[in-house]
């Protein structure tokens, strides 16, 4: 019967589930296996190797969290960072989600609380007026400036990772004169397929840029340097795009720490500040786990509070 096999014996079933139903790469599966091993080792060290899913309790979860919090690394006396503890806890939470989906009696996934970090991860993002300054920085009279304008517009419109951006090919974009906006499927981090959306603005600047291209290179964004050898790939690299963004950040007088990923942060922050549900933003960004998307919530709490007070204050109700 389901629920009566020891938790440890479900590892390979769980990994199959991650591969087939979640579409995770073999590398992601290895990470989950490694993170769960710590929990399994802890069970065995405490004579709980035969513990079944339906025997897992809140108290045992609490004891495991204490163990992680007080665990000493092999290198010395330093304990595990809160963020590292959370990797182990998220893996356990996903195992419980697997039990829930397969109707195996156990604790609900939300019973596994993550370790609270003393300070939130710093999320650098640009305000709309700063985005505007950045987008206007390239010299669109030149082909490389037009390319750079298209790059900046696409990064902010789609929230693409820079590695996803440089992997794009021209044939993926079916742009015509009547194309107001665009949506395409891409294979992102860990082989996860998702749909990304290009705004009307982004489509306009992509069209302007592509209309100036006279080459046959399949890459969407290429190097126009005269020093580029014909035998070399003209596709822009991740480092090239990072340098391009840094160049215009300086020209626009924006914070030096801004990068292509800052535009991804700005994209997510803008969506959340408009009241978009966190799980939708998770889908837009291609995050495998909602916990990754939650780093953005602390920068939008004030905006969401203001929206709530404006539209749902209860002022229309009679006393």
**Count of distinct strands:** 2
**CATH superfamily membership of the largest domain, which one?**
Intergrase catalytic core
Number of helices: 13
User: Which CATH architecture of the largest domain would you pick?
Assistant: Orthogonal Bundle
| Largest sheet, strands/sense/barrel | 2 strands, antiparallel
Task: Give the class-level CATH name of the largest domain.
Answer: Mainly Alpha
Gyration radius (Cα, Å) is 24 Å
Strand content: under 5%
Number of domains: 2
User: Tell me, what's the shape?
Assistant: elongated
Instruction: Report the structural category.
Output: mainly alpha
Strand order of the largest sheet: 1-2
SSE string, helix = H, strand = E? Answer: HHHHHHHEEHHHHHH
Notes on the structure:
- The chain is mainly alpha-helical and 319 residues long.
- The chain has 2 domains: 7-111, Orthogonal Bundle (DNA polymerase, domain 1); 128-308, hpI Integrase, Chain A, CATH 1.10.443.10.
- The protein is 50% helix and 4% strand.
- It contains 13 helices and 2 strands; from the N terminus they run αααααααββαααααα.
- α2 (26-45) crosses α4.
- The model has no long low-confidence stretch (mean pLDDT 84).
């Amino acid at each position: 019967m389901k629920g009566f096999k020891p938790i440890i014996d479900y590892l390979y079933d769980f990994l199959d589930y991650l591969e087939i139903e979640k579409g995770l790469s073999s590398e992601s599966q290895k990470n989950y296996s490694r993170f769960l091993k710590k929990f399994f080792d802890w069970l065995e060290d405490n004579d709980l190797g035969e513990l079944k899913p339906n025997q897992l309790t809140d108290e045992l979860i609490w004891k495991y969290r204490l163990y992680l919090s007080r665990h000493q690394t092999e290198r010395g006396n330093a304990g595990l960072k809160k963020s590292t503890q959370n990797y182990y806890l998220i893996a356990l939470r996903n195992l419980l989600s697997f039990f829930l989906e397969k109707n195996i009696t156990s604790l609900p996934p939300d019973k596994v609380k993550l370790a609270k970090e003393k300070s939130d991860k710093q999320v650098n993002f640009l305000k709309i007026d700063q985005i505007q300054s950045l987008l206007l920085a390239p010299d669109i009279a030149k082909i490389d400036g037009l390319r750079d304008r298209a790059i900046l517009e696409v990064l902010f419109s789609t929230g693409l990772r820079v590695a996803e951006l440089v992997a794009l090919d021209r044939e993926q974009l079916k742009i015509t004169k009547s194309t107001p906006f665009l949506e395409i499927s891409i294979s992102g981090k860990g082989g996860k397929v998702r749909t990304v959306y290009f705004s009307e603005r982004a489509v306009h600047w992509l069209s302007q840029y592509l209309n100036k291209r006279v080459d046959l290179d399949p890459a969407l964004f290429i190097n126009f340097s005269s020093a580029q050898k014909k035998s070399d790939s003209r596709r822009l690299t991740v480092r090239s795009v990072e340098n391009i963004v840094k160049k215009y950040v300086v020209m626009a007088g924006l914070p030096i720490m801004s990068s292509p990923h800052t535009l991804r942060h700005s994209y997510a922050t803008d969506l959340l500040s408009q009241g978009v549900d966190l799980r939708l933003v998770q889908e837009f960004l291609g995050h495998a786990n909602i916990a990754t998307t939650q780093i953005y919530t602390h920068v939008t709490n004030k905006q969401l509070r203001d929206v709530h007070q404006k539209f749902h204050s209860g002022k229309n109700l009679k006393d």
